[in-house]
UniProtKB/TrEMBL annotation:
EC class (word): transferase
SUPFAM superfamilies given in the database record: Carbamate kinase-like, PUA domain-like
Protein name: Glutamate 5-kinase
InterPro entries in the cross-refs: AceGlu_kinase-like_sf, Asp/Glu/Uridylate_kinase, G5K_ProB, Glu/AcGlu_kinase, Glu_5kinase, Glu_5kinase/COase_Synthase, Glutamate_5-kinase_CS, PUA
Native organism: Bowmanella denitrificans
Family matches, as Pfam families: AA_kinase, PUA
NCBIfam families listed in its UniProt record: proB
Length: 372
């Protein structure tokens, strides 16, 4: 088996997606409480003071809206969607009370992340919010996403958000200490696994369903999320959000639950993705100043350094970046071929006038660019 029962490992992180399950928001299965969120909010505050960045993925809309719509028996899908609509605002108000900096709501469906234009917009929005020290709080758009409410879960959403947000860490806060070798609610002798290096079939087979009335996926969706994150160079932690000691340990760089190691480094994962999963749709020639900025400063590519644009491509497509006869880098363009041709060589402040609309001031953001 590829797992081990060891002493807690230490770990470091810089940008985390923290996923908070319904059980922590609504411990009684309905309404919204702060009981289990205070210690987490303090941890987030302290982490931000150290310059770390956090995106929250918060469940709990359905549970938070449940007592506004008393019904007999199991709610129908439409009733759950209505509960989510009521509960989402309550849940956001609950979070806002815990932070002394602004919070922002982002509601997503899986379809939004699959659509290239929407994906780019989500990415840019997250980037801007983080740059302005605002904490994005993401949830599924339950009221519009039929199949998401039926099959969707915020653990897998958390992994996708970690990818879009370029996070190095996914922390899943739940009501259990981590991954056990059997569901601890049913097996009192179950052992906690502190470190998992490969989310193999053996590991997947350990997962049972949700133990609470409000949780959606149980341990299985957490393992799916960890697998996805790991394949993209992101580490995942499952921690018990019911225990304040979890956050104290995290604050000291210790792992209080289960740590899933990334399968490869983030830069390698990104390089593989850009190199092998995406076919370049165009070519840019850049000048020596831009080459210098990319290579020595890891800077974004500005329109001013672009000498020529070749190919038919849309915003979001991969482009090769050349300097003379040297293939330097691959990156995702923020503009389509026509717009990039119009703004090549221009100063960033001229972009709006040239295109006729306000847009990005870089052509390829440094996070979307790998040097070869
Ligand atoms: N192997 C396992 N190890 C730990 N917990 C497990 C395991 N299998 C199933 N579970 C259950 O998963 C639950 C957590 O998932 P869930 O109820 O969906 O929480 P959340 O609302 O935080 O997503 C635990 O309370 C536990 O009963
Ligand atoms: N989007 C739903 C929660 C879905 C979900 O995955 O819940 P959970 O298993 O508690 O993380 C809501 O806000 O109620």
């Amino acid at each position: 088996m590829s797992h081990s029962i060891e002493q807690p490992n230490s770990f470091t992180w810089q940008r985390a997606v923290i996923k908070v399950g319904s059980a922590l928001i609504a411990p009684d299965g309905q309404g919204c409480r702060t009981e289990h969120l205070l210690a987490l909010a303090q941890f987030i505050n302290a982490s931000r003071r150290q310059g770390k960045e956090v995106v929250l993925v918060s469940s709990g809309a359905v549970a938070a809206g449940r007592n506004a719509m008393p019904i007999d028996g199991k709610p129908t899908l439409a009733q759950k969607q209505a509960m989510a609509a009521v509960g989402q605002t309550r849940m956001m108000a609950n979070w806002a009370r815990l932070f002394d900096f602004p919070t922002a709501q982002i509601l997503l469906t899986h379809g939004d992340i699959r659509d290239r234009d929407r994906y780019l917009n989500i990415k840019s929005t997250l980037r801007e919010l983080l740059a302005h020290q605002i904490i994005p709080i993401v949830n599924e758009n339950d009221s519009v996403a039929t199949e998401e409410l039926k099959f969707g879960d915020n653990d897998n959403l958390g992994a996708l958000v970690a990818l879009v947000a370029e996070a190095d860490t996914l922390m899943i806060c739940t009501d259990v200490d981590g991954l056990y070798d059997a569901d601890p609610r049913k097996n009192p002798g179950a052992q906690l696994l502190t470190s998992v290096s490969d989310v193999s079939r053996d590991i997947m087979a350990l997962a049972g369903g949700s133990g609470s009335t409000v949780g959606t996926g149980g341990m299985l969706t957490k393992l799916q999320a960890a697998k996805k994150a790991s394949a993209n160079g992101i580490q995942t932690l499952i921690v018990n959000g019911h225990k304040t000691s979890s956050y104290a340990a995290l604050g000291q760089g210790q792992v209080p639950g289960t740590l899933f190691h990334p399968a490869l480094s983030r830069s390698k994962a990104k390089k593989q993705w850009l190199r092998h999963s995406l076919k370049a749709k165009g070519k840019l020639q850049i000048d020596s100043g831009a080459r210098q900025a990319l290579v020595t400063r890891g800077a974004s590519l500005l329109p001013v350094g672009i000498l020529s644009v070749e190919g038919h491509f849309a915003a979001g497509d991969a482009l090769e970046i050349w300097h003379d006869s040297e293939l330097l880098a691959i990156g995702l363009s923020l503009f389509d071929a026509d717009d990039l041709t119009s703004i090549k060589g221009a100063q960033s402040q001229q972009v709006e006038a040239l295109l006729g609309y306000a847009s990005h001031d870089v052509a390829i953001h440094r996070d979307d660019l790998v040097l070869l």
